[in-house]
Specification:
Length: about 130
């Protein structure tokens, strides 16, 4: 079983994007305080790349900004990309299943109601 739970802060404002087929997604990074310490006794920060789809992506982009604390649950996937020179590289990315948040900076907007799988009641448009 591959289940990952992270509690940390967003390192930048999430931006909503769309696939050529029109499916919405957002990629974002989470900074998490590690249990490990450096040689000076300071906690090390780990950074995780995350990917959310459809209604979860829309909610993240609408309600969260850089610095907001989030609790994210999902599974890690090993993916392949190309750098600016065209060389292949592998990276790990968290495929988001659910997200919880508090202390958002977007102020007075009401927070969405989530159902048991972490998605809001926004209609799902994927054919699978």
């Amino acid at each position: 079983m591959n289940t990952i739970m992270l509690n940390g802060r967003l390192t930048a404002d999430p931006e909503l994007s769309e696939t050529p087929a029109g499916t919405r997604f957002t990629r974002f990074n989470i900074a998490c305080k590690s249990q490990r310490k450096d040689k000076d006794g300071n906690y090390i920060t780990d950074f995780f790349r995350a990917l959310a789809w459809r209604s979860t992506a829309e909610i993240i982009a609408k309600y969260l900004v850089k610095g907001d604390m989030v609790y994210v649950k999902g599974s890690m996937s090993n993916k392949r990309g190309k750098d600016k020179d065209g060389a292949n590289f592998n990276f790990w990315e968290l495929d988001v299943e659910s997200v919880e948040f508090s202390n958002t900076k977007k102020g007075s907007e009401s927070k969405p109601d989530f159902n048991s799988n972490g998605n809001s009641d926004i209609e799902d448009d994927l054919p699978f």
